What does this fold into?
Amino acid sequence: MKHKKASDMAGKICALCCQGHLEAKRGREYFRHGEALIIIEDVPAWVCNKCGERYHHAWVFKRMREIAIHRDQLTEHLRVPVAHYQSGDEAA
Ligand SMILES: [Zn+2]
It folds into this structure.
């Protein structure tokens, strides 16, 4: 399905920081689907030029979910090291 080019969010104020403006960009998304985490490159998004928050249209989320559901077909994999943060530090 083809969607019309969405220019409706260009230049809008970011809803998170209320200062930055949104720009159309493509980039890497770390998409969680249940237990699975997949990386999707070149995902179209609106990105805040101040805080970096990323916004997606509903159909982009839908497409990412479809990619995640069919992740068995992906041939490219990354090995990611896992660490445990061992310290008494608290968040605040
Ligand atoms: Zn922002």
Summary: The chain has a mean pLDDT of 90. The domain at 22-73 is CATH 3.10.20 (Ubiquitin-like (UB roll)). Helices lie at 58-69.
